[in-house]
Amino acid sequence: MVPGATKTGLAKNTSWKVVLPFYLYAGLSLLAATIILVFSTPAFLQHYFHPRTLAITHLMALGWGTMMILGASHQLVPVLIEGKLYSNALAYLSFVFAGVGIPLLIFGFYTFDFGWPAQYGAILINAAILFYLVNIVVSMVKSKHENVHAVFVFTGTLWLMITILVGLFLVYNFTFNILSKDSLSYLPLHAHLGIIGWFLLLVIGVGSRLIPLFLISKYNNNKLLWWIYYLINSALISFIIFFLYIKITWLYLLPLIAIAVSMILFANYCYHAYKERLRKKVDYQVKISLLSVSMMALPLIFLLIVILLLLFSVDNYRLVLTYGFCIFFGWITAIIFGMTFKTLPFIVWNKVYHDKAGLGKTPNPKELFSDKIFKAMGISYLAGFVLFAAGVLISNELIIKIATILLLIAAILYNGNVWKAATHKPNKP
Predict the structure, then answer these.
(1) Could you give the CA distance from residue 429 to residue 231 in angstroms, rounded to a whole number?
(2) Is residue 217 classed as helix, strand or coil in its secondary structure?
(3) What pLDDT, on a 0 to 100 scale, did the predictor assign at position 316?
(4) Which of 141, 201, 355, 410 has its CA 20 to 30 A from that of 186?
(5) Residue 123 maps to which CATH number?
(6) What is the distance between the alpha carbons of residues 156 and 354, in angstroms, rounded to a whole number?
């Protein structure tokens, strides 16, 4: 059962009107990203600093991953802090500003024009994240309930704010040369602030709470989670210092090792939660969520190879492309696929049946979406993921094209299932 849930569904905390738009927007962003992907296969045979690649990456990072996390966290953070969301109005503002800003920014990348659409888009996204940050901080202060999961979310949000601010400077740097170097030079810094500071902290912070709950496991190890927290943040801070002030390539292995250790510890945490579960049968949604944990290893392997090659002054763009793909279409997408259909049905159930509980038979939240469609989506997604990564590594456009079609099918099936759940109507007596 989802955090804050009762036998009848999610605890009535944050309005579904706040949460659902984020879910729907994220799904459409994934669909848009895969459509662009299908028509951009030649771009993945070229350098990663390519307009189509940049557009797809930011659509996946902002429209897909970030919008989904923002939406879900408005529902889940109050549960983590055992309090209420401070402001539904700020949540609405976050959605509107991000919802308008993201396509403007993506248009700038797609056309490689960093004029007013990209600049205004970046400003709107910064405003959206600021609204979200204020909402989360005030909610936590008012609750006065601190736990490791909430600290993960809070710190991740701070890193997200920094990531978005850096991105704003990079957008304006294309036109006004406000930084000492060109924007491409700062791209690794911008990317890893978001990947490690935002996505990794959020996924581990929330996942370490949700996975045991979905498995009906009593396993909990806050000491281990604090170790993970300190490892990730120390790795990111050291990376920033090395990147900005100490230009010695082999030093990047140190934060990489720290991140690798943190991921191993998190995998161990999930393993123990799985072993100590009370529910022996594990559904497909939890299986793909657990799969995402193992998929975290792939980007690390590719990044290690990239760093080792850089020691010999070899820059392999195919490895960098595969590295980024494994993050956004692998690890992040897999965890969202799994968690969507463990959280969304409860949110919708609460919307539709909360006031009808005890008045007659109501469906199980799991019945609000199609398990068959989910399985088909999972097969199409995994096949597309493997083929795309292989196609990029061997520079085969045909394999990449087949992979993009499979990923598009997965995105269509995902959106269809989300729509089925989100538009569920109460059963007629």
Answers:
(1) 55
(2) strand
(3) 82
(4) 201
(5) 1.20.210.10
(6) 32
- What's the gap between Cα 299 and its chain centre? 15
- Give the pLDDT of residue 291: 92
Indicate whether 270 belongs to any domain.
yes
Question: Residue 242: what pLDDT?
Answer: 94
Q: Is residue 287 part of a domain?
A: yes
Residue 209 lies in a domain: yes
**Own/partner long-range contacts of 161-169 (Cβ < 8 Å, ≥24 apart):** 161/129, 161/130, 161/133, 162/193, 162/197, 163/190, 163/193, 163/194, 163/197, 163/198, 164/122, 164/125, 164/126, 164/129, 165/126, 166/190, 166/193, 167/122, 167/125, 168/122, 168/123, 168/126
* DSSP, res 331: I
Residue 236 CB neighbour total at 10 angstroms: 23
Q: What pLDDT score does 428 carry?
A: 61
Q: What is the model's pLDDT at position 5?
A: 45
Dig out the tokens for 309 from the structure. 């090659």
Report how many domains make up the chain: 1
Whether 428 is in a domain gets the answer no
Q: How far apart are CA 133 and CA 98, in angstroms?
A: 13
Domain that holds residue 417: 8-422
Read out DSSP for 233-291?
HHHHHHHHHHHHH---GGGGHHHHHHHHHHHHHHHHHHHHHHHTBS--S--HHHHHHHH
Q: Given this model, what pLDDT does residue 64 score? A: 97
State how far Cα 336 lies from the chain centre: 7
Per-block mean pLDDT, blocks of 10 residues, the chain (429 long): 40 74 96 96 87 94 96 89 89 96 96 92 96 93 84 94 95 89 90 95 92 90 96 96 91 95 95 90 89 91 89 82 93 94 89 68 85 95 96 94 97 96 78
What lies within 8 Å, CB to CB, of 404 at 6+ separation is 34, 37, 38, 41, 384, 388
